[in-house]
Amino acid sequence: MRSSSHAATLTRCAAALCAVGLLAFTVQAAEVDGDEALLLETCELVVPGTPLSTVGQCGWLEVAENPAEPEGRQIRIRVARIPARDRLVEPDPLVFFAGGPGQAATETWPVVAHALRKVSANRDILLVDQRGTGQSNALKCPEIELEEALAADWDEMARATRECLDAIDGDPRFYTTTIAMHDIDAARAALGYEAVNLYGGSYGTRAAQVYLRLFPERVRTLVLDGVVPQSLALGSEHAAKLDQSLYRVLAGCDADPKCGVTFPGTADKLAALARSLQDNPVDVTIEHPTTGEPVSLTFDREVLSSALRFLAYSSDTQAMLPLLIHEAATERRFDRLASQMLIATAGLQQSISQGMEMSVMCAEDYPWYPQESSASDFLMGDLLVRAARTQCEIWPQGPVPEGFHDPVTVDVPVLLLSGELDPVTPPEYGDQVAVHFPRATHLVAPGQGHIVSTRGCMGDLVSEFIIAGSAEGLETDCMARMSHTPYFISLTGSAP
Question: pTM, whole model, 2 decimals?
Fold first, then answer.
Protein backbone atom coordinates (compact mmCIF):
# COMPACT_ATOMS: atom_id res chain seq x y z
CA MET A 1 0.00 0.00 0.00
CA ARG A 2 1.42 3.37 -0.99
CA SER A 3 1.19 6.17 1.56
CA SER A 4 3.07 9.44 2.07
CA SER A 5 2.62 9.25 5.83
CA HIS A 6 5.17 11.95 6.51
CA ALA A 7 2.95 14.21 4.47
CA ALA A 8 0.24 13.39 6.99
CA THR A 9 2.42 14.60 9.82
CA LEU A 10 3.21 17.79 7.95
CA THR A 11 -0.39 18.59 7.12
CA ARG A 12 -1.18 18.63 10.83
CA CYS A 13 1.39 21.34 11.56
CA ALA A 14 1.18 25.08 11.18
CA ALA A 15 3.71 26.63 8.81
CA ALA A 16 6.47 27.28 11.31
CA LEU A 17 9.72 29.15 11.84
CA CYS A 18 13.00 28.09 13.31
CA ALA A 19 15.59 28.54 16.06
CA VAL A 20 17.13 30.88 18.59
CA GLY A 21 20.74 31.93 19.01
CA LEU A 22 21.93 33.20 22.39
CA LEU A 23 24.62 35.80 23.07
CA ALA A 24 24.86 36.11 26.86
CA PHE A 25 26.88 38.91 28.43
CA THR A 26 24.90 41.44 30.45
CA VAL A 27 23.43 39.91 33.59
CA GLN A 28 20.38 41.32 35.33
CA ALA A 29 18.33 39.84 38.17
CA ALA A 30 14.58 39.97 37.81
CA GLU A 31 13.11 42.54 40.18
CA VAL A 32 11.46 40.17 42.64
CA ASP A 33 12.33 38.96 46.11
CA GLY A 34 12.95 35.40 47.22
CA ASP A 35 14.19 32.21 45.61
CA GLU A 36 11.94 32.50 42.54
CA ALA A 37 13.92 35.37 40.96
CA LEU A 38 15.25 34.70 37.48
CA LEU A 39 18.79 35.52 36.46
CA LEU A 40 18.53 37.11 33.01
CA GLU A 41 21.29 37.49 30.45
CA THR A 42 21.37 39.51 27.25
CA CYS A 43 20.38 37.30 24.34
CA GLU A 44 19.54 37.53 20.67
CA LEU A 45 16.52 35.68 19.34
CA VAL A 46 17.07 34.77 15.70
CA VAL A 47 14.99 33.24 12.94
CA PRO A 48 17.64 31.14 11.13
CA GLY A 49 18.10 31.79 7.47
CA THR A 50 16.54 35.24 7.71
CA PRO A 51 17.70 38.69 8.85
CA LEU A 52 14.98 38.68 11.53
CA SER A 53 16.23 38.92 15.10
CA THR A 54 15.37 40.52 18.41
CA VAL A 55 17.59 41.34 21.37
CA GLY A 56 16.24 40.55 24.81
CA GLN A 57 17.09 39.10 28.20
CA CYS A 58 16.96 35.33 28.72
CA GLY A 59 16.98 33.04 31.73
CA TRP A 60 15.85 29.66 33.06
CA LEU A 61 12.98 28.60 35.28
CA GLU A 62 13.14 25.19 36.94
CA VAL A 63 9.85 23.33 37.29
CA ALA A 64 8.76 19.79 38.12
CA GLU A 65 8.19 17.67 35.05
CA ASN A 66 5.34 15.92 36.87
CA PRO A 67 3.38 18.56 38.81
CA ALA A 68 2.12 15.86 41.19
CA GLU A 69 5.73 15.22 42.25
CA PRO A 70 7.16 18.67 43.00
CA GLU A 71 10.33 17.16 44.47
CA GLY A 72 10.80 14.81 41.52
CA ARG A 73 12.58 15.36 38.22
CA GLN A 74 13.06 19.01 37.31
CA ILE A 75 13.15 20.48 33.78
CA ARG A 76 14.35 23.90 32.66
CA ILE A 77 11.95 26.32 30.99
CA ARG A 78 13.44 28.99 28.74
CA VAL A 79 12.14 32.47 29.52
CA ALA A 80 12.89 35.66 27.58
CA ARG A 81 11.92 39.23 28.28
CA ILE A 82 12.20 42.00 25.70
CA PRO A 83 12.17 45.25 27.68
CA ALA A 84 9.99 48.11 26.49
CA ARG A 85 11.89 50.57 24.32
CA ASP A 86 10.65 53.80 25.91
CA ARG A 87 11.18 55.18 29.39
CA LEU A 88 7.53 55.07 30.38
CA VAL A 89 6.78 51.36 30.88
CA GLU A 90 3.31 50.00 31.54
CA PRO A 91 3.16 47.32 34.26
CA ASP A 92 1.34 44.70 32.15
CA PRO A 93 3.50 42.99 29.51
CA LEU A 94 2.39 41.15 26.39
CA VAL A 95 2.73 37.36 26.67
CA PHE A 96 3.14 35.65 23.29
CA PHE A 97 1.90 32.08 22.67
CA ALA A 98 3.35 30.31 19.64
CA GLY A 99 1.51 27.92 17.33
CA GLY A 100 1.97 24.40 16.10
CA PRO A 101 1.55 22.70 18.47
CA GLY A 102 5.32 22.38 18.69
CA GLN A 103 6.64 25.88 17.97
CA ALA A 104 8.62 27.89 20.51
CA ALA A 105 7.76 31.45 21.50
CA THR A 106 11.37 32.65 21.48
CA GLU A 107 11.80 31.27 17.97
CA THR A 108 8.71 32.85 16.41
CA TRP A 109 8.34 36.23 18.08
CA PRO A 110 10.77 38.00 15.66
CA VAL A 111 8.30 37.34 12.85
CA VAL A 112 5.53 39.41 14.45
CA ALA A 113 7.76 41.82 16.39
CA HIS A 114 7.65 44.58 13.77
CA ALA A 115 3.86 44.34 13.34
CA LEU A 116 3.40 44.83 17.11
CA ARG A 117 6.14 47.44 17.55
CA LYS A 118 3.65 49.96 19.00
CA VAL A 119 2.92 47.54 21.83
CA SER A 120 6.59 46.93 22.60
CA ALA A 121 7.30 50.66 22.83
CA ASN A 122 5.80 50.89 26.32
CA ARG A 123 5.32 47.26 27.30
CA ASP A 124 7.69 44.40 27.96
CA ILE A 125 7.28 41.27 25.85
CA LEU A 126 7.33 37.99 27.79
CA LEU A 127 8.29 34.88 25.83
CA VAL A 128 8.24 31.42 27.40
CA ASP A 129 9.15 28.38 25.33
CA GLN A 130 6.28 26.03 26.14
CA ARG A 131 7.60 22.84 27.76
CA GLY A 132 8.69 20.40 25.08
CA THR A 133 9.58 23.15 22.55
CA GLY A 134 12.57 25.35 21.77
CA GLN A 135 14.98 25.25 24.69
CA SER A 136 12.43 24.03 27.25
CA ASN A 137 13.42 20.34 27.24
CA ALA A 138 12.33 20.01 23.62
CA LEU A 139 10.75 16.69 22.67
CA LYS A 140 12.35 16.59 19.24
CA CYS A 141 12.12 13.39 17.24
CA PRO A 142 15.28 12.13 15.53
CA GLU A 143 15.62 13.62 12.07
CA ILE A 144 15.27 11.27 9.15
CA GLU A 145 16.50 11.65 5.61
CA LEU A 146 14.13 13.54 3.37
CA GLU A 147 13.95 10.71 0.86
CA GLU A 148 13.08 8.25 3.65
CA ALA A 149 10.38 10.56 5.00
CA LEU A 150 8.70 10.96 1.64
CA ALA A 151 8.79 7.22 0.91
CA ALA A 152 7.36 6.25 4.30
CA ASP A 153 4.25 4.11 4.75
CA TRP A 154 2.04 3.61 7.82
CA ASP A 155 4.25 0.87 9.22
CA GLU A 156 7.22 3.18 8.85
CA MET A 157 5.35 5.98 10.63
CA ALA A 158 4.64 3.63 13.53
CA ARG A 159 8.29 2.61 13.68
CA ALA A 160 9.42 6.26 13.63
CA THR A 161 6.94 7.10 16.41
CA ARG A 162 8.35 4.34 18.64
CA GLU A 163 11.87 5.49 17.82
CA CYS A 164 10.96 9.03 18.83
CA LEU A 165 9.40 7.83 22.07
CA ASP A 166 12.60 5.97 22.91
CA ALA A 167 14.81 8.95 22.01
CA ILE A 168 13.14 11.84 23.85
CA ASP A 169 14.34 12.90 27.28
CA GLY A 170 11.07 13.24 29.12
CA ASP A 171 7.74 11.68 30.02
CA PRO A 172 5.39 12.84 27.25
CA ARG A 173 2.35 12.61 29.54
CA PHE A 174 3.39 15.85 31.23
CA TYR A 175 3.73 18.11 28.15
CA THR A 176 0.07 19.01 27.67
CA THR A 177 -1.36 22.51 27.37
CA THR A 178 -2.85 22.74 30.85
CA ILE A 179 0.37 21.74 32.61
CA ALA A 180 2.38 24.13 30.42
CA MET A 181 0.19 27.09 31.32
CA HIS A 182 1.26 26.74 34.97
CA ASP A 183 4.85 27.20 33.73
CA ILE A 184 3.82 30.41 31.98
CA ASP A 185 2.26 31.75 35.15
CA ALA A 186 5.31 30.78 37.20
CA ALA A 187 7.44 32.86 34.81
CA ARG A 188 5.03 35.77 35.20
CA ALA A 189 5.29 35.57 38.97
CA ALA A 190 9.08 35.23 38.92
CA LEU A 191 9.34 38.43 36.89
CA GLY A 192 6.99 40.30 39.21
CA TYR A 193 4.13 41.04 36.82
CA GLU A 194 0.68 41.28 38.38
CA ALA A 195 -1.35 41.47 35.16
CA VAL A 196 -0.60 40.50 31.55
CA ASN A 197 -1.98 40.84 28.04
CA LEU A 198 -2.18 37.64 26.00
CA TYR A 199 -1.57 37.15 22.27
CA GLY A 200 -1.96 33.68 20.77
CA GLY A 201 -1.63 32.57 17.17
CA SER A 202 -3.14 29.34 15.78
CA TYR A 203 -2.62 26.58 18.42
CA GLY A 204 -1.42 29.45 20.62
CA THR A 205 -5.04 30.62 20.76
CA ARG A 206 -5.91 27.39 22.57
CA ALA A 207 -3.00 27.88 24.96
CA ALA A 208 -4.05 31.47 25.65
CA GLN A 209 -7.65 30.44 26.35
CA VAL A 210 -6.48 27.71 28.74
CA TYR A 211 -4.28 30.25 30.56
CA LEU A 212 -7.23 32.64 30.78
CA ARG A 213 -9.47 29.94 32.27
CA LEU A 214 -6.83 29.03 34.87
CA PHE A 215 -5.76 32.58 35.79
CA PRO A 216 -8.59 34.97 34.83
CA GLU A 217 -7.60 37.55 37.44
CA ARG A 218 -4.21 37.97 35.77
CA VAL A 219 -5.44 38.84 32.26
CA ARG A 220 -6.04 42.41 31.12
CA THR A 221 -6.70 41.76 27.40
CA LEU A 222 -6.74 38.77 25.05
CA VAL A 223 -5.89 38.65 21.31
CA LEU A 224 -6.58 35.45 19.36
CA ASP A 225 -5.22 35.32 15.79
CA GLY A 226 -6.30 32.27 13.79
CA VAL A 227 -8.85 31.16 16.35
CA VAL A 228 -9.09 27.56 17.61
CA PRO A 229 -12.38 26.91 19.46
CA GLN A 230 -11.92 24.96 22.69
CA SER A 231 -14.55 22.51 21.47
CA LEU A 232 -12.49 21.64 18.37
CA ALA A 233 -10.43 18.46 18.16
CA LEU A 234 -7.44 19.74 16.18
CA GLY A 235 -7.11 17.96 12.86
CA SER A 236 -10.62 16.56 12.77
CA GLU A 237 -11.88 19.25 10.37
CA HIS A 238 -8.70 20.10 8.47
CA ALA A 239 -9.72 18.21 5.33
CA ALA A 240 -13.05 20.02 5.08
CA LYS A 241 -11.60 23.46 5.80
CA LEU A 242 -8.81 22.98 3.25
CA ASP A 243 -11.33 22.24 0.50
CA GLN A 244 -13.41 25.21 1.59
CA SER A 245 -10.43 27.56 1.30
CA LEU A 246 -9.09 26.11 -1.96
CA TYR A 247 -12.40 26.34 -3.79
CA ARG A 248 -13.01 29.88 -2.56
CA VAL A 249 -9.60 30.88 -3.92
CA LEU A 250 -10.31 29.19 -7.24
CA ALA A 251 -13.76 30.79 -7.43
CA GLY A 252 -12.02 34.12 -6.98
CA CYS A 253 -9.84 33.28 -9.98
CA ASP A 254 -12.93 32.52 -12.06
CA ALA A 255 -14.33 35.95 -11.16
CA ASP A 256 -11.07 37.72 -11.95
CA PRO A 257 -10.91 38.94 -15.59
CA LYS A 258 -7.26 38.00 -16.10
CA CYS A 259 -7.07 34.83 -14.03
CA GLY A 260 -10.41 33.46 -15.18
CA VAL A 261 -9.52 33.84 -18.86
CA THR A 262 -6.00 32.42 -18.46
CA PHE A 263 -6.94 29.50 -16.20
CA PRO A 264 -10.61 28.68 -16.84
CA GLY A 265 -12.37 26.00 -14.78
CA THR A 266 -9.49 25.42 -12.36
CA ALA A 267 -11.73 23.86 -9.70
CA ASP A 268 -12.87 21.16 -12.13
CA LYS A 269 -9.26 20.60 -13.16
CA LEU A 270 -8.26 20.12 -9.53
CA ALA A 271 -10.96 17.53 -8.95
CA ALA A 272 -9.94 15.64 -12.10
CA LEU A 273 -6.27 15.87 -11.14
CA ALA A 274 -6.94 14.40 -7.69
CA ARG A 275 -8.83 11.47 -9.23
CA SER A 276 -6.07 10.85 -11.73
CA LEU A 277 -3.31 10.85 -9.10
CA GLN A 278 -5.36 8.58 -6.86
CA ASP A 279 -5.32 5.88 -9.54
CA ASN A 280 -2.09 6.73 -11.36
CA PRO A 281 0.64 8.33 -9.19
CA VAL A 282 3.52 9.96 -11.03
CA ASP A 283 7.23 9.53 -10.31
CA VAL A 284 8.93 12.93 -10.07
CA THR A 285 12.58 13.89 -9.70
CA ILE A 286 13.45 17.35 -8.36
CA GLU A 287 16.31 19.06 -6.56
CA HIS A 288 16.73 18.73 -2.81
CA PRO A 289 15.86 22.18 -1.34
CA THR A 290 19.13 22.47 0.61
CA THR A 291 21.71 20.17 -1.03
CA GLY A 292 20.66 20.59 -4.66
CA GLU A 293 20.94 16.83 -5.15
CA PRO A 294 18.24 15.04 -7.16
CA VAL A 295 15.37 13.56 -5.12
CA SER A 296 12.86 11.09 -6.51
CA LEU A 297 9.38 10.76 -5.05
CA THR A 298 5.98 9.43 -5.94
CA PHE A 299 3.58 12.30 -6.50
CA ASP A 300 0.17 11.01 -5.50
CA ARG A 301 -3.07 12.49 -4.19
CA GLU A 302 -1.65 12.76 -0.65
CA VAL A 303 1.40 14.72 -1.78
CA LEU A 304 -0.85 16.93 -3.92
CA SER A 305 -3.11 17.75 -0.96
CA SER A 306 -0.16 18.43 1.35
CA ALA A 307 1.54 20.73 -1.16
CA LEU A 308 -1.67 22.65 -1.81
CA ARG A 309 -2.38 22.97 1.91
CA PHE A 310 0.91 24.72 2.60
CA LEU A 311 0.37 27.00 -0.37
CA ALA A 312 -3.09 27.82 0.98
CA TYR A 313 -1.78 29.27 4.27
CA SER A 314 -0.82 32.69 2.90
CA SER A 315 -2.48 35.08 0.47
CA ASP A 316 0.88 35.43 -1.30
CA THR A 317 1.06 31.70 -2.09
CA GLN A 318 -2.69 31.33 -2.64
CA ALA A 319 -2.14 33.63 -5.61
CA MET A 320 -0.04 30.87 -7.23
CA LEU A 321 -2.65 28.11 -6.89
CA PRO A 322 -4.54 28.55 -10.19
CA LEU A 323 -1.28 28.64 -12.17
CA LEU A 324 0.22 25.57 -10.48
CA ILE A 325 -2.98 23.53 -10.65
CA HIS A 326 -3.49 24.44 -14.33
CA GLU A 327 0.12 23.53 -15.08
CA ALA A 328 -0.17 20.14 -13.35
CA ALA A 329 -3.54 19.30 -14.88
CA THR A 330 -2.88 20.36 -18.46
CA GLU A 331 0.88 19.85 -18.85
CA ARG A 332 1.35 17.02 -16.31
CA ARG A 333 4.10 19.06 -14.66
CA PHE A 334 4.36 18.33 -10.96
CA ASP A 335 7.87 19.56 -10.23
CA ARG A 336 6.93 22.92 -8.73
CA LEU A 337 4.21 21.45 -6.52
CA ALA A 338 6.59 18.68 -5.46
CA SER A 339 9.24 21.28 -4.65
CA GLN A 340 6.78 23.00 -2.33
CA MET A 341 6.27 19.69 -0.55
CA LEU A 342 10.01 19.19 -0.06
CA ILE A 343 10.58 22.74 1.16
CA ALA A 344 7.81 22.33 3.73
CA THR A 345 9.18 18.95 4.81
CA ALA A 346 12.69 20.26 5.33
CA GLY A 347 11.53 23.35 7.21
CA LEU A 348 9.11 21.61 9.55
CA GLN A 349 11.59 18.91 10.55
CA GLN A 350 13.62 21.74 12.11
CA SER A 351 10.91 24.00 13.49
CA ILE A 352 8.37 21.66 15.11
CA SER A 353 9.01 19.62 18.25
CA GLN A 354 7.15 16.56 17.01
CA GLY A 355 7.12 14.84 20.39
CA MET A 356 5.43 17.81 22.04
CA GLU A 357 2.98 17.98 19.13
CA MET A 358 2.00 14.35 19.71
CA SER A 359 1.80 14.88 23.48
CA VAL A 360 -0.75 17.64 22.94
CA MET A 361 -2.77 16.13 20.13
CA CYS A 362 -2.89 12.54 21.37
CA ALA A 363 -4.12 13.67 24.80
CA GLU A 364 -6.30 16.66 23.91
CA ASP A 365 -7.62 15.93 20.43
CA TYR A 366 -7.45 12.36 19.18
CA PRO A 367 -9.81 10.94 21.86
CA TRP A 368 -12.47 13.36 20.56
CA TYR A 369 -12.10 12.41 16.88
CA PRO A 370 -15.29 10.97 15.35
CA GLN A 371 -15.32 7.18 15.34
CA GLU A 372 -16.17 7.07 11.65
CA SER A 373 -14.34 9.35 9.22
CA SER A 374 -16.51 11.23 6.73
CA ALA A 375 -13.57 12.84 4.91
CA SER A 376 -13.33 10.49 1.94
CA ASP A 377 -14.80 13.04 -0.47
CA PHE A 378 -12.28 15.73 0.44
CA LEU A 379 -8.98 16.29 -1.34
CA MET A 380 -7.01 15.24 1.75
CA GLY A 381 -9.33 12.31 2.45
CA ASP A 382 -8.83 10.69 5.86
CA LEU A 383 -5.06 11.25 5.81
CA LEU A 384 -4.94 13.09 9.13
CA VAL A 385 -7.26 10.69 10.93
CA ARG A 386 -5.13 7.73 9.89
CA ALA A 387 -1.93 9.52 10.88
CA ALA A 388 -3.33 10.41 14.29
CA ARG A 389 -4.52 6.84 14.83
CA THR A 390 -1.11 5.43 13.92
CA GLN A 391 0.79 7.76 16.24
CA CYS A 392 -1.63 8.04 19.15
CA GLU A 393 -2.02 4.29 19.55
CA ILE A 394 1.69 4.36 20.45
CA TRP A 395 2.22 7.74 22.13
CA PRO A 396 1.43 7.96 25.90
CA GLN A 397 -1.53 10.21 26.65
CA GLY A 398 -1.42 12.56 29.62
CA PRO A 399 -4.37 13.62 31.74
CA VAL A 400 -6.81 16.20 30.40
CA PRO A 401 -8.96 18.09 32.93
CA GLU A 402 -12.69 17.52 32.90
CA GLY A 403 -14.35 20.24 30.85
CA PHE A 404 -11.18 20.98 28.87
CA HIS A 405 -13.20 21.31 25.66
CA ASP A 406 -15.86 23.51 27.21
CA PRO A 407 -15.86 27.09 25.87
CA VAL A 408 -13.93 29.63 27.92
CA THR A 409 -16.08 32.49 29.18
CA VAL A 410 -14.36 35.34 31.03
CA ASP A 411 -15.35 39.01 31.07
CA VAL A 412 -12.19 40.55 29.61
CA PRO A 413 -11.73 42.57 26.40
CA VAL A 414 -11.10 40.09 23.58
CA LEU A 415 -10.00 40.78 19.99
CA LEU A 416 -10.40 37.87 17.58
CA LEU A 417 -8.73 37.91 14.15
CA SER A 418 -9.46 35.69 11.16
CA GLY A 419 -8.33 35.51 7.57
CA GLU A 420 -11.19 35.37 5.09
CA LEU A 421 -9.50 32.50 3.20
CA ASP A 422 -7.78 30.72 6.11
CA PRO A 423 -7.55 26.97 5.30
CA VAL A 424 -7.20 25.78 8.93
CA THR A 425 -8.88 28.30 11.28
CA PRO A 426 -11.57 29.93 9.11
CA PRO A 427 -13.71 32.91 10.21
CA GLU A 428 -16.58 30.73 11.45
CA TYR A 429 -14.26 29.51 14.22
CA GLY A 430 -13.83 33.09 15.40
CA ASP A 431 -17.60 33.54 15.38
CA GLN A 432 -18.02 30.40 17.48
CA VAL A 433 -15.60 31.69 20.13
CA ALA A 434 -16.81 35.30 20.12
CA VAL A 435 -20.26 34.44 21.45
CA HIS A 436 -18.74 33.20 24.71
CA PHE A 437 -16.98 36.46 25.56
CA PRO A 438 -19.15 39.41 26.69
CA ARG A 439 -16.61 41.93 25.37
CA ALA A 440 -15.47 40.30 22.12
CA THR A 441 -14.72 41.96 18.79
CA HIS A 442 -14.10 39.78 15.72
CA LEU A 443 -12.26 41.21 12.71
CA VAL A 444 -12.05 39.27 9.42
CA ALA A 445 -9.18 40.36 7.16
CA PRO A 446 -10.35 40.43 3.51
CA GLY A 447 -8.51 38.08 1.15
CA GLN A 448 -6.07 36.83 3.81
CA GLY A 449 -5.02 33.39 4.97
CA HIS A 450 -3.73 32.02 8.27
CA ILE A 451 -2.44 34.53 10.88
CA VAL A 452 -3.22 38.11 9.89
CA SER A 453 -1.49 40.34 12.47
CA THR A 454 1.43 40.83 10.08
CA ARG A 455 -0.81 41.80 7.16
CA GLY A 456 -1.72 45.36 6.20
CA CYS A 457 -2.90 47.45 9.14
CA MET A 458 -3.87 44.50 11.33
CA GLY A 459 -0.80 44.79 13.56
CA ASP A 460 -1.62 48.42 14.30
CA LEU A 461 -5.20 47.48 15.18
CA VAL A 462 -3.94 44.80 17.56
CA SER A 463 -1.55 47.31 19.13
CA GLU A 464 -4.23 49.96 19.55
CA PHE A 465 -6.54 47.42 21.18
CA ILE A 466 -3.89 46.35 23.69
CA ILE A 467 -2.78 49.90 24.46
CA ALA A 468 -6.35 51.09 25.05
CA GLY A 469 -7.43 47.90 26.80
CA SER A 470 -10.62 47.96 24.75
CA ALA A 471 -11.97 47.69 21.22
CA GLU A 472 -14.30 50.65 21.74
CA GLY A 473 -13.49 53.35 19.22
CA LEU A 474 -11.14 51.07 17.26
CA GLU A 475 -10.88 52.54 13.74
CA THR A 476 -11.03 49.62 11.30
CA ASP A 477 -11.56 51.57 8.05
CA CYS A 478 -8.05 50.61 6.94
CA MET A 479 -9.21 47.01 6.49
CA ALA A 480 -11.29 48.08 3.48
CA ARG A 481 -8.01 48.56 1.58
CA MET A 482 -6.96 44.94 2.16
CA SER A 483 -7.49 42.29 -0.49
CA HIS A 484 -5.98 39.06 -1.73
CA THR A 485 -2.64 39.11 -3.51
CA PRO A 486 -3.17 39.44 -7.31
CA TYR A 487 -3.23 36.05 -9.01
CA PHE A 488 -0.05 34.90 -10.72
CA ILE A 489 -0.60 34.72 -14.47
CA SER A 490 2.96 33.51 -14.97
CA LEU A 491 5.86 32.70 -12.63
CA THR A 492 6.84 36.37 -12.74
CA GLY A 493 3.60 37.35 -11.05
CA SER A 494 0.35 39.00 -12.05
CA ALA A 495 -0.17 40.56 -15.45
CA PRO A 496 0.60 44.29 -15.69
Answer: 0.92
